[in-house]
Amino acid sequence: NKVSGKKVEPVAILNGPAGVGKTSAALAVLQEFGFTVVEVNGSDVNTGDRLITVLQKNIFSVGLGAKPKKNAVVIDEVDGMYGNEQGDAGDCGAGAFVTYLTSLKDKRCSPVILIANDMKPKHLRALKADPTVALRLNFYPIVEHDMQEFLNNVVRKANSKCSLETLRTVMKSANGDLRAALTQLQLFVRC
Cβ distance 127 to 135 under 8 Å? Predict the structure, then answer.
């Protein structure tokens, strides 16, 4: 951390319900600091071994010369990992993945951002238990007032019209999920 001089964990966990901006926040911050983002979906890659391989290829300086490429890895849906190479849905290689992430706290490497809706899976509980391994940032459902203001701005910028009753219906149905609200709003708004 060049701003404060304090040590910053190379791993962060962004946790919260769907549609509240976890991935968008991660991408915006990493872009602001000049990182090339490597995005991986934990549900697709689905084993600790495969995720470790992705990390090993991307979080240490990449390229030659005076200005090596700065990568950062964002692993979305890390709570959705399942199955290991042998098809065992028990540990899913998550133990090895957590051990690898733990080993990063004493290494100089690029950021790794884990994004999860649910912190209950065993591998995430293990990371949560040791605050020296990962910085944890909790995201919460968007409150009604903020969502209404945001949706009104979207409607206004689209030069569209939407009744307050329709906005309230959309917000109630979305239940704090801004992404879902935007998707539903598209069905109601006249452009």
Answer: no
Q: Which residues pair with 13 in a beta bridge?
A: 114, 136
In terms of Cβ atoms closer than 10 Å to its own Cβ (0-12, 13-18, 19+), residue 91 is middle
- What is d(CA 46, CA 3) in angstroms, rounded to the nearest whole number? 36
Gyration radius (Cα) of the chain, Å: 19
Q: DSSP readout, 83-137? A: --TT--TTTTTHHHHHHHHHHGGGS----EEEEES---SHHHHHHHH-TTTEEEE
Report how far residue 190's alpha carbon sits from residue 170's, in angstroms, rounded to the nearest whole number.
15
Q: What is the pTM of this model?
A: 0.80
Predicted pLDDT of residue 189: 74
How far apart CA 85 and CA 180 sit, in angstroms, is 34
Model confidence pLDDT, tens digit, residues 104-117: 887 888 899 999 99
Give the torsion through C-alpha atoms of 106, 108, 113, 118, to 10 deg: -10
